[in-house]
Specification:
There is one protein chain. By secondary structure, the protein is α+β, with helices and mostly antiparallel strands. It folds into 2 domains: about 35 residues, no CATH class; about 300 residues, Beta-lactamase (3-Layer(aba) Sandwich), CATH 3.40.710. The protein is built from 12 helices and 15 strands. The strands form 4 sheets. Strands 2-1-15-14-13-12-11-10 form an 8-stranded antiparallel sheet, sandwiched between helices. Helix 3 runs parallel beside helix 7. The protein is globular.
């Protein structure tokens, strides 16, 4: 992925014979042929796709090929959608960012954590992944309620006093999904579909978890593969013990589990230039450099569900990446020049 990023992030000196789109196509075709890149890519300028391509397999075993409408697990790219769900409820005056989360989970042993802290990764709340790795029956599927129960039972110490530092937290976004359910009275899956995906015409986007436990796979789905050194080939992570979290964390939503396509993510990109879902003021706050992510790096910030680089050689950059066994994803938006880069990979 680093080689791909180099091409997409550095200036491309276009010759008279080859435009940007042709260079991208040639480069990515080579990445697929010689370096096993497998996935879909979309690059847009000024609101119009200039390059779009699907390369490789959606299913290595059956040799089913990827296409532009193949659906991928977005992993942490999902967080911006969960953030938007909270923003919608806030714009409807159903909650405040300053609400203490004990309003929704009075049983939690932690004080002074707000919804804003969860949105910006400044809560200091313990990592549910660590707790489940050490204490969970791996033959069982964990759901969001189990995260809350685990936090109560374990009562692990906060990483830091809420609001004093930044530390990336999947727990925070899982709790945000549960807050959406409590406030809206709807399942997270249904709320996201009715209030985000359907209004934006994202017809191939949905919340999809319990893949392993329910044993159901949607149509045109890109199965995520990992490379097995011992077998010298790509295999599903399900059978490898070091990836058993794909089974026992199969029921968690909010920090991941949005599934989508490059085309639908481009619709999402365009929506973030409008006030179709929330007010202009809410969008501006979401995409602002709210919290510095490192005491030693003055250039990198976080908004609501997105990373923010206020200044670069191409202006302001809004982005997020995602990773889960078998998947690597990213969306990069250079908003000052209206350029969008979307890459979804399933190996």
């Amino acid at each position: 992925m680093k080689k791909i990023l180099l091409l997409l992030f550095v200036p491309v000196f276009v010759t008279a014979q080859k435009d940007h789109a042709q260079l991208l196509q040639e480069y990515m075709t080579g990445q697929n042929k010689y370096f096993q890149f497998n996935g879909t890519i979309l690059v847009a300028e000024k609101g119009k796709p200039i390059y779009q391509q699907a390369l490789g397999y959606a299913d290595y075993n059956s040799r089913r090929m990827l296409n532009d409408s193949s659906v991928f697990e977005l992993a942490s790219v999902s967080k911006q959608f969960t953030a938007m769900g909270i923003m919608i409820l806030r714009d409807r005056k159903l909650l405040s960012y300053e609400n203490n989360i004990k309003k929704y989970f009075p049983q939690l042993p932690y004080d002074n954590i707000t919804i804003r802290n969860l949105l910006t990764h400044t809560s200091g709340i313990p990592s549910y992944e660590d707790q489940f790795e050490k204490n969970w029956d791996r033959k069982k599927i964990a759901f969001n309620k189990d995260i809350i129960d685990m936090l109560v039972q374990r009562h692990d110490t906060l990483f830091f006093k809420p609001g004093t530092k930044w530390q990336y937290s999947n727990t925070g976004y899982a709790l945000l999904a549960s807050i959406i359910e409590k406030v809206s009275g709807m399942r997270y899956n249904d709320f996201m579909a009715i209030n985000i995906f359907q209004p934006l015409g994202m017809s191939h986007t949905f919340i999809y978890n319990t893949r392993r436990s329910a044993n159901k796979i949607p149509g045109n789905y890109a199965l995520g593969y990992v490379y097995a050194d011992s077998l010298k080939r790509y295999i599903l992570p399900d059978s490898l013990s070091k990836f058993d979290m794909v089974y026992y964390l199969d029921g968690i939503v909010g920090d991941g589990c949005v599934n989508s396509t490059i085309g639908d993510l481009f619709k999402w990109d365009r929506a973030l230039y409008s006030n179709k879902l929330v007010s202009k003021a809410s969008l501006e706050e979401m995409l602002s450099p709210l919290i510095r992510t490192s005491p030693t790096d003055s250039s990198s910030y976080y908004g609501f569900g997105v990373s923010v680089l206020p200044k670069s050689d191409k202006g302001k950059v809004i982005s997020h990446t995602g990773g889960w066994p078998g998947y690597r994803t990213m969306i990069v938006r250079r908003t000052d020049i209206d350029e969008t880069i979307i890459i979804l990979s399933n190996n």
